[in-house]
Design brief:
The chain is mainly α and about 55 residues long. It has helices at about 1-15, 35-40, 45-55; strands at about 20, 30. The termini are far apart.
Length: about 55
């Protein structure tokens, strides 16, 4: 049962990376890869990723 819940959460999280949904879940807009490309272009995100990688090494 726990494994199944984990898979559902994982799939839900992956789907939400590509969707923009209002707080009341009335409308859902597909944004595709726009969210991910915006994240990767962000200097703050790249810096935090660099710090995470260098500190874990």
């Amino acid at each position: 049962m726990i494994r199944r819940r984990w898979h559902l959460s994982r799939h839900r999280g992956l789907a939400q990376a590509f969707l923009l949904q209002d707080p009341f879940e009335q409308e859902v807009h597909c944004v595709g890869l726009e969210n991910i490309t915006d994240l990767l272009r962000s200097a703050g995100y790249r810096e935090s990723l660099r710090l995470s990688v260098t500190r874990s090494s």
